[in-house]
Specification:
The radius of gyration is 22 Å and the shape is globular. The longest helix is centred in the last third of the chain and has 22 residues, at 257-278. It is of the alpha+beta class. It has helices at residues 42-46, 62-70, 103-117, 129-140, 149-161, 165-173, 180-195, 199-210, 221-234, 242-251, 257-278, 336-339, 343-354, 361-365, 375-380, 386-393; strands spanning 5-11, 15-20, 29-33, 37-40, 91-92, 99-100, 236-240, 284-289, 297-298, 304-307, 315-319, 330-331.
Amino acid sequence: AVAAAEARFISSAKGKGLFATRNIRKGEIVFVERPVVSSQFLWNALYNYRACDHCLRALETAEENAQRLLGKSSLVLPHPEQCSIRKDLHQQCPRCQVTYCSAECRQAALEQYHQVLCLGPSRDDPTHPLNKLQEAWRNMHYPPETSSIMLMARMVATVKQAKDKEWWIKTFSQFCNKTANEEEEIVHKLLGDKFKGQLELLRLLFMEALYDEHLSRWFTPEGFRSLFALVGTNGQGIGTSSLSQWVHACDALELPMLQREELDAFIDQLYKDIEKESGEFLNCEGSGLYVLQSCCNHSCIPNAETSFPENNFLLHLTALEDIEAGEEICISYLDCCQRERSRHSRNKILRENYLFTCSCPKCLAQADDADVTSDEEEEGEGETDDAELEDEMTDV
């Protein structure tokens, strides 16, 4: 099959974009992409959101997942046969006991980066350089999380283990690069006011844990900041959930009307109860670097969206409307509520989080609107935090 999309260079200001190579129908999957590297967020893992250490597939059964989020071990889910988790396939690294969803994932991790990062018997040793690095990161980056130092660690480990190091360095270098000033802004955004001076501490810990002469540039202050900015700019949130998989499977069941109504009411109530207990933190969450997806530019009226319907790191890009050959494929970096707000509000969020001003057709059409936010928006102003952005990024 011919690929439906390809990356093309647009301009030095805009960088690359993704364009349709043939006509694409609404609802069609444009591509399914696996990340070159990915990693679960550190707080997410610490709080027992159990995911495959390689592909982020949720490892709990839907029932265990619901019990934990609800804080109620007596909960029983109907239709347990609709849960897709196969515990009989799970495997652990024999040296450090991290868990994988399958032998394939364990092998893939071992071949790409895990030999370098395996902590062996030092898994719980707080003085191990990798544990020190993770602890420092967690202390700077509280939930809601948007990135992880371990994504950078896996990039280094991948190059260290690779026979063809240059190929990997080239792969990582094709992700969008920023100017030094923009990098400063991204680092500031990722670490916040309180911690921006701590980039140097992270760099020293990163060096202690992972230094490699082939990559000496990544360990210099400038190179480390660039790596940090690369991950901050291109990292795509990944969300997986065995509970949401179970819900989708239940939605597809052919049931008599009364049973259908009972099941729907049960699921609605379950989500309400979970929200009281766990808030918005429903998914196993992490981030990954995707070569094609990272070329997708933003539009406030996107013609495609990303999702993770396979309950792992495989990203599906799906067309939201018909797209003609040669047309640019755009996703939205904003969630549905944010997209409904004024042009001024949308661009405020985009500038703060992604360092650009949008010129999509919707923004151009509203260019003459007053640069003020409406009253009801003023009230909502404080709510546009990373959690909302992250929610959009990790929709499953």
